[in-house]
Amino acid sequence: MTHKSQPPRSRNNHFSRPIAWMVAAAGIAVLVGWGALSVAQNDTLGKSAMAHTEKLVGFGPRPSGSDAHQQMQQYIISSLKSAGVAVESNSFTADSSIGPLPMNNIIGRIPGRTDRIFVIASHYDTKRTKDFSFVGANDGGSSSGLLLALAPLLARKSFSHEVRLVFFDGEESIPWDWDEDEALIGSRHLAARWKADGTAKRIGAFILLDLIGDADLDIVKESSSTGWLSDQVWAAAKSLGHSKHFTQNKFPIEDDHQPFLDIGVPSVDLIDFSYGPNHEYWHTAKDTLDKLSPRSLQVVGEVVLDTLTTLDVKK
User: Fold this and answer.
1) What are the contacts of 73-80 at 24+ separation with CB within 8 A?
2) Which of 23, 239, 266, 283 is least surrounded by CB atoms within 10 angstroms?
3) How far is residue 74's CA from residue 95's CA, in Å, rounded to a whole number?
4) CA–CA gap between residue 100 and residue 102 (Å, rounded)
5) What is the average pLDDT across 276-293?
6) How far apart are CA 40 and CA 208, in angstroms?
7) Is the pLDDT of residue 13 over 50?
8) Phi then psi for 48, rounded to 5 degrees?
9) Where are the beta strands (DSSP E) in 211-276?
10) Within a 10 A sphere around the Cβ of 256, how many other Cβ atoms?
11) Environment class of residue 63 by beta-carbon count within 10 Å: exposed (0-12), middle (13-18) or buried (19+)?
12) What are the backbone dihedrals phi and psi of residue 299, each rounded to the nearest 5 degrees, phi first?
């Protein structure tokens, strides 16, 4: 979905608009309660996320409504169920400039012991292109792959709060140039639904992942995100020794977290705003698997798990 520029980015380019736990063992950060020493040592989470990403990319370009997109939906649903996660489909039809488009937000639900909810989200569609084949390894692939790798870990963890893994459809603008009415379609639809049925009031934290597989990982501090939640994530990164990947650069980014911010849900967007020299990999044929690293996926996964573990106690 993104890439980095020094001025705040317009969504022409696709965007515009409290301390973590750490246990030291042999100098390695261990995620409390996860039995995760081997995961941290061997990057097994990152490798699993990369394997899922490779599978998703293997379907080819995956714009909403395409055959490859439908195949990907089945893969995501099957993977979640195999991980022991209950699956809910939020299907609807979107009106668009190219006609009615079937959309489906896929929601994995892991029950807790309270009525509070944590959400981790990604978009899984790829940008619709005409002149080249866009497989979206990082932009849609990496974040969705990490969510699938997190699913079995989260399913085995006993949280007080419910955890939902959300795969948004229709994040990418249907016209090539950014059109705010034809982008963030899935997230706007689900935010409206959850506001209407009262779910939104139960969400204690919404964590969005986007473009997090770049081998040169450089997460920006998205300035529209909820301040205390951003601070919690950055504290987790520091406690785990990952601060070099979580910068203090601040930019406003319009992304799938925005519809949830608009309805009062505490939300943070974890996004690498620099993807390739002069942003040259973003929304191009160069967004391929060779630009990604299992280590980057491991780093983001560890930070997300640590943040959730801390919030589960505090919220």
Assistant:
1) 73/104, 73/106, 73/124, 76/106, 76/124, 76/144, 76/148, 76/167, 77/106, 79/52, 79/148, 79/151, 80/106, 80/108, 80/148, 80/151, 80/165
2) 23
3) 23
4) 7
5) 94
6) 22
7) no
8) -65, -45
9) 219-221, 267-272
10) 29
11) buried
12) -60, -50
Rounded Cα gap, residues 306 and 301, in angstroms: 9
Q: Which tens digits make up the pLDDT trace of 127-146?
A: 999 899 999 999 999 999 99
The label of the residue with tokens 């007080």 reads 160
Best CA proximity match to 121, nearest among 309, 292, 267: 267
Is the separation of the CB atoms in 308 and 233 below 8 Å? no
Three-class SS state of 250 = coil
Return left, alpha or beta for 166; rule: phi > 0 is left, psi -120 to 50 is alpha, else beta: beta
Amino acid at 122: S
Sheet holding 86-94, edge to edge: 86-94, 101-110, 162-168, 117-123, 203-210, 267-272, 219-221
Pairing of strands 117-123, 23-25: unpaired
Domains within the chain, CATH numbers bracketed: 11-314 (3.40.630.10)
Tokens of 19: 């301390």
Bridge partners for 129 per DSSP: none
Of the CA atoms within 13 Å of residue 242, those in its CB half-sphere come to 29
From the number of C-beta atoms within 10 Å of its C-beta (0-12, 13-18, 19+), residue 201 rates as middle
How many C-beta neighbours within 10 Å does residue 176 have?
14
Kindly report, residue by residue over 34-73, the tens digit of the pLDDT. Answer: 444 445 657 899 999 999 999 999 999 999 999 999 999 9
The reported pLDDT for the residue numbered 32 is 43
- Per-residue pLDDT of 154-187, as tens digits, reads 999 889 999 999 999 999 999 888 888 899 999 9
Q: How far apart are CA 52 and CA 30, in angstroms?
A: 24
Instruction: Report, as an integer, the average pLDDT of 183-206.
Output: 98
Q: Is the pLDDT of residue 9 over 50?
A: no
- pTM given for the model: 0.89
Amino acid (one-letter) located at 34: W
CA distance 237 to 243: 5
Instruction: Name the H helices within the chain.
Output: 37-42, 44-58, 67-82, 143-156, 185-196, 227-239, 258-262, 294-314
